[in-house]
Amino acid sequence: MLRWNYRADVPKEVNTRFAGVVVGYRSLTGLQVRYNGTLYMVHRLIYVIIYGDCLGVEDEVDHADLNNYNNRPNNLRKATRTQNMANREAQRNSKTGIKGVGLLPNGTWRVRIDNTHLGCFKTKEEAAAVYRAAATQIYGKFGRGTSLQKQI
C-alpha cells in the first residue's frame, strides 16, 4: 500500500489529516489517486516504484488474482491488452458460468477460444479441461483456467 508521507513544507493541519493515510480512493476499476491535478491508478504507480519499469500508454498492469484492490507487488505484472483480457473470469451474462464453454440445444458442451471452435463434449468437465489447456497453451501464464469448484 502507498501511504502519504509527513511533509515539513505544509501546514500542520495537512499532515494531521493526510500523513500515514493510505493513498487513493476506491473506484470500479481499482484504487485511484489524484496528484497535481492528474488521476493515476495506484497499481500502476506501485508497479513502477517496485520494478522501476516505465510503462507506456499501451502497457497495462494485470492483477494475477483478478482482485483490482490487491496491489501487492507479487500480484502485479506487466501485460498487453490481449494478455490482460485473457486473465478474466467468465462474463456475468454467461449461461454456463464457464469461460469459453456453451451448452448447445442437443445437450453437448461447445468450447471456443478467440472465436475458434475447439470441439463439442458430452460433459461440462471435459469442455472446461479443453478450454483450460487451450488457454494455457495460447496465453501462457495469463491464460485464465476455469475453476469448476466455484461453479459446480
Structure description:
This protein is α+β, with helices and mostly antiparallel strands and about 150 residues long. It has two domains: about 1-80, no CATH class; about 90-150, GCC-box Binding Domain (2-Layer Sandwich), CATH 3.30.730. The protein has helices spanning about 10-20, 40-50, 80-85, 125-140, 150, and strands spanning about 25, 30-35, 40, 60-65, 75-80, 100-105, 110-115, 115-120. Strands 1-2-3 form a three-stranded antiparallel β-sheet. It has a three-stranded antiparallel β-sheet with strand order 6-7-8, covered by helices on one side. Strand 6 (about 100-105) and strand 7 form a beta hairpin. It is elongated and about 70 Å long.
Structural class by sheet pairing and helices: alpha+beta
Spans of at least 5 consecutive residues whose pLDDT stays below 50 are: 147-152
Return the domain count.
Answer: 2
Total beta strand runs: 8
Which range best describes the helical content: under 10%, 10-25%, 25-40%, 40-55%, 55-70% or over 70%? 25-40%
Average the pLDDT over all residues and give the rounded result: 87
Strand content: 15-25%
Rg, rounded, reads 21 Å
Strand order of the largest sheet: 1-2-3
